[in-house]
Amino acid sequence: MKKLAKSNMLSMQPIPKTLVSCRDKEGRNNALVVGFAANVSLDPAMVMVGIVPSRFSYHMVKETGCFVINLPKKGYEKEYNYLGSRSGRDEDKFAAMNIRWKDAEYVNAPILTDCPVSIECSVVESTMPGTHELFIGKVEAVHVEEEYLDEKGNILWNKIDLM
User: Fold this and answer.
1) 5 in a structural domain
2) What does pTM read for this prediction?
3) Confidence band (pLDDT; 50, 70, 90) for 4?
4) Number of domains into which the chain is organized
5) Is residue 16's pLDDT more than 70?
């Protein structure tokens, strides 16, 4: 039998786990774990990430209007946990963990190259319904490791062992 919870506060975890990478106007890279990420539209393709304004990356996304969603696979837990537990205000997290990256092709942000899927996004709007600002991003490009694509270029999600 179901009972009412003592609190309505709820934090569902996105599957797969999600890293957002971004760059500030001075060229500093950063990445953070986000707990709020979702599809928003299929046509045009749009996604949403939620970031608390006190996070170091928040101002980067707000000022530059872009970000990259990176989906890590199993075996990347150490890096994922580090990126999610430290602040870029205090250190260069990419250098500290030897995070491999390359410049995105369509937006001014880094792609985490050890993640099998990276989604370049341009912010089209944002809203602040509560604790997190929800950045809605138009998908500019989806980068996928070749082994996870079929002959038509479709993503073989069932072959990727995502976190």
Assistant:
1) no
2) 0.93
3) low
4) 1
5) yes
